[in-house]
User: Fold these one by one.
Assistant:
Number 1:
Amino acid sequence: MNMNIDVMLLVLIILGALWTVMGRSLLKATIALAVTSALVSLVIFRLNSPLAAVFELSVCAGLITAIFVSAISMMRPLTHQEVLAISKARVKRYRYLPVVLVIIGIALILMKARQDFMIMPPPPFSTDVRSLLWNLRRLDLIGQVVILIAGALGIVILFEEKKQNDK
Amino acid sequence: MTSSSWQLFSLYGFFIVLLFACGAYCILVTRNMIRSIIGLELLTKAVTLLLIVVGKITGREALTQGLVITIIVIEVVVAATAAGIALWVFRRTDSLDVRSIRNLKG
């Protein structure tokens, strides 16, 4: 495996995360989050997990961006003075993030971690993700379906409230 | 753990901790509700990446992919519901600032 490409992708992910957190506009932060998601999905694909990479790309980079953009588009745009006031306060609060990251990075490099982790022998069950999902993790899938239904119902109720308010 | 897998783990672990720190800082510092959801997304991405790396090192890619798919599905539901709640609060208070939610303040 060519490690240089991985290092480059990981550095780009951190830059994307910094852009997401420190970007001024909410819309740009959302787009930066989508870019970060796409980069994360590339890394996941390079780590031999194509199905998870496809999910990450389609759902996290696609669907979540659409949700955020639609939510932001339903809100009132800020006036010029509000933007100026908010961005002044933001710069004060967010300027420490690169410093914090550098300090954490130096601490991680200096830290001498133990290398003698034990890895358990390979699992006896299937190594195919589809059969594993349907056979071994059936209960989790039921939980996922319940959570999806609960989420959908929650959103329906929230938007119903909005219609009543409009009337 | 062999030296090559330790090298892989330490390289990815370094950047995963930085990504996690970005998300945690965003949640701690921001007062905007949408930005806190974005910070939560960054935290989830760090955890996702860590699971995938561990799956690669231990040879259990199938199991970790199943877990990651579950995480992603729940992440979407959380993001959608939280964005809906933020929108609802915005309609009530005309602001995304968490300090404007004072109705439940004791």
Number 2:
Amino acid sequence: MASRELGPGERRFSPASIGADAALLVWFVFSLFPLVWMVLLALKTNAEQISTYFAFTPTLENFATVLSEEGERLTSVNFTDAILTSVINCVGAVIVSLVIGIPAAYAAGRWQYRGSNDVMFTILSFRFAPELMVIVPLFVIYNQIGLFDTNVGMIWVLQLVTMPLIVWILRSYFQDMPAELEQAALLDGYTRRRAFVMVALPLVRPGIAAAALLAFIFAWNNYVFPLILTGSQHTPVTVAVTRFLGGGGQAYYNLTAAAALIAALPPLLVALSIQRYLVRGLSFGAVKS
Amino acid sequence: MTTTAPPRTPAPAVQREPRPVPAWRRGLRPYVLSIPAVLIIVGILYPFVLGAYYAFLNYAAVVRRPVFIGLQNFAEILSDPAFWTSVRVTLHYAVVATVVETVLGIGIALLLNRSTLVGRVFERVLILPLMIAPVIAGVIWGLMFNPQYGVLNYVLGLGSTFDWLGESTAIWSVILVDVWIYTPFVAILVLAGIRSLPKEPFEASAVDGASWFYMFRRLMLPMMWPYILVAVIFRFMDCLKIFDHVFVLTAGGPGDATRTLQIGAYQNSIIQLQYSQGSTYMFLLWVIVFVTARYLVSVLGKAQRRAAGSEE
């Protein structure tokens, strides 16, 4: 544990080690520069936005503009409403996915039953399905039954993003939990349901939290569903951000960057809080760490 | 005293036998638990199947009563050069992006694995690009790509003439953004894999005087193969249906230089309201994705079995 070094000759201050750190540094300049530039742009005034200077007097007025009526006039989307819409849609989709997904994940993690693999692989195939194949018919259906541009319509379709994630991650957590723990509870006179609620569920609670938060990030970051299935009433942030690009026939670099920063912040904060669980989540439990 | 037993504590084992549940009901349990999920699956599969069905209709917004026309859409689209351009663009994108991200991701994972102070600091911020919405990544890079006002030409000293999103450069620029977003995905998966490897084979071969490169090629890569494959599968599948950042950066242009299959389907279905054509694009893409996924997952299964066998 103390040393993770794999090869000989990898002393701490050897030329090889310094070279490796330098190579890492190059990647991180490349990786972080766009984010830094987004922050800088967001702090610039209209007059400075097209300059490529790094030194300027920062201002917060872009954030105020994005969230004000001025921003709404430019984009015909109220950005504060867009944030609220994103929160409602994502929390709604995650809650539905949890209520439905936890029992299914438990069933799949505990028992091999006829058709269990088929159900699990059908759920997994959602992960790789081309979204438009589902969205185009939904676009037609939603227009007919009045779900177009509604939160309910978005929550429903976001299941495609959140459900597979939650079911597959939690299945791997339930599989890793020793069945003896529940059997012991059953011997102590617990019913199956009680054993699940009192023993199994608390043990996978970190997994549930991580899966729910990761599903939230994915739902929040989704763009193609709301692009096609929402209009001007329930636009989420990902679509609202792009509206600043052509706002008023003029490019507002600084406003776009401010809007992008606001929209990017929740996933970034959530991701940093669940970093330990990310590997397992991103790989659907196929890679455990 | 007997009446003051605290609430909610389970009854002691001696007093309460588990309620006997008939075997047939126990057998049903996993099915009952899965019913809600299966209902959702059906709810999502219905539009999916409907979408597949559209591919066999002459369905467009202007067509009042679509009728079944069999394989006519497929015949039309398979003989349309625009479709094959989309296939070429999509494969170009998917292959280049997956290869570059895999190589870079493995490299970064190896560098981070040394667990120096620099590595530990960088590991924490590595995933940031992966966590912001791809469409927002597209927006940011779009601002930076602008030839006149964008920061890239200024920083790289290219003047205002280099057009990142021009006819011949656009595909490489959208791949660059893909590499920026998703290389961390490969890196953290591979890093998790490296850290799960047993130490003994490496120590043994170090004693034998094996070079670092020899150990990497003969020990680490074979043992890492399942992890790398998982990353490759996820990346390749996602690249085949890429949409978000490409759409906001180029909308498929200039011309059809970055018109991937999903963007082609979007243009057909949503812009021109030719639902059948868009659905035929998607149906063909789905077939490609499905066949590729089946193949890659079978390769993964073999690799995982081999890796598991080699440990015993």
